[in-house]
Automatic annotation (TrEMBL):
Region feature Disordered, mapped onto this chain: 268-298
The name this protein goes by in its record: UDP-2,3-diacylglucosamine hydrolase
Keyword Cell membrane: yes
Xref: PANTHER family: BLL8164 PROTEIN, UDP-2,3-DIACYLGLUCOSAMINE HYDROLASE-RELATED
Length: 298
């Protein structure tokens, strides 16, 4: 059967695909990638799960197809930005990075990028682990929660196979335990407020990140917070359309949209100065927590 023509979009952003982990939803991710023809593609960290190389590496032919598709996109003109995450932190090694880039000339690898939308709004794009104090100060704890999380995913998978229909999200069950762990990690790390402060210091109007496996778009008075989600649980990606609208595509939930003002005007400059109080930021983060289904740091 012939596939429908891919939709041309300005930017496509995805994170936490965790290729190499048995929980990665590689087939669904490849189908999603094939739906779009982006001018720019951002892999917002944890695209490859390096933590699994020594403890259960699952690299299927679909993973090869994904890499081949990315190279083919690059050859047809898509600029590919690879943001390093904690599971693919090997990319933060300059020697490794230089070796990779020699064979992939249209791939650029950095810890963060600034994405400028068609109307000139600026978003800091980063994975997020560098703003997660649990990840940075107690990696043993981060690895411990990853083990619990993986066990939940295994239980979900078994339950789904046994009891659920194929079109339901296999990770929809067992969510209470996962949510508790995720909320606790977010509370302890103050993740969103730190990352938004960093974006503000870089003269950005918002942030686009991943890491906590919680797709979201939160519009506050001061800044925009977008999380691209993941391809382990939620199967989500963020799209910037040519008309400037941001669209969070969610496989198992209703999509979310953010229509940015048509021009980045002087308003944005003043709200940067006026809105940098802690109180407003907490409100923005609280709004984010209220609309999220989960929030695991992985
Ligand atoms: Mn991560």
């Amino acid at each position: 059967m012939q596939r429908p023509a891919p939709t041309p979009v300005r930017t496509l952003l995805v994170s936490d695909v965790h290729l190499g982990s048995k929980h990665s939803r590689a087939e669904e991710f490849l189908a999603f990638l094939r739906e779009f023809q982006p001018d720019s593609l951002y892999l917002v960290g944890d695209f490859i799960d390096g933590w699994k190389i020594n403890t259960g590496w699952h690299w299927s032919s679909v993973c090869d197809d994904i890499v081949a598709h990315l190279i083919s996109l690059a050859q047809r003109g898509t600029k590919i930005h690879y943001v390093s995450g904690n599971h693919d932190a090997f990319l933060r090694n300059p020697a490794f990075r230089a070796g990779c880039l020699a064979t992939l000339p249209r791939f650029e690898v950095e810890d963060e990028f600034v994405l400028e939308t068609v109307a000139g709004w600026k978003f800091l794009v980063t994975h997020g682990d560098l703003f997660d104090c649990v990840e940075n100060n107690a990696q043993w704890l981060s690895k411990g929660t990853t083990t619990i999380y993986d066990a939940c995913l295994c239980l979900n998978r078994w339950y789904h196979k046994t009891w659920q229909h194929r079109d339901r999200n296999p990770h929809g069950v067992c969510s209470v335990l996962k949510d508790r762990v995720k909320r606790w990690i977010r509370f302890v790390s103050g993740f969103e407020s730190k990352i938004l402060n960093h974006a503000r210091q870089n003269d950005c109007d918002g942030v686009i990140c991943g890491h906590i496996h919680t797709p979201d778009i939160v519009k506050g008075n001061a800044m925009w917070y977008c999380n691209t989600g993941d391809w382990v649980e939620n199967c989500t990606g963020l799209v910037e359309r040519h008309d400037g609208q941001l669209h969070l595509v969610r496989r198992y939930d209703e999509d979310l949209f953010l229509r940015l003002p048509a021009q980045r005007g002087p308003m944005s400059r003043t709200f940067h100065e006026e809105a940098s109080t802690d109180t407003e930021e907490r409100e923005l983060v609280a709004a984010g927590a209220g609309t999220s289904s989960s929030g695991y740091a992985a």
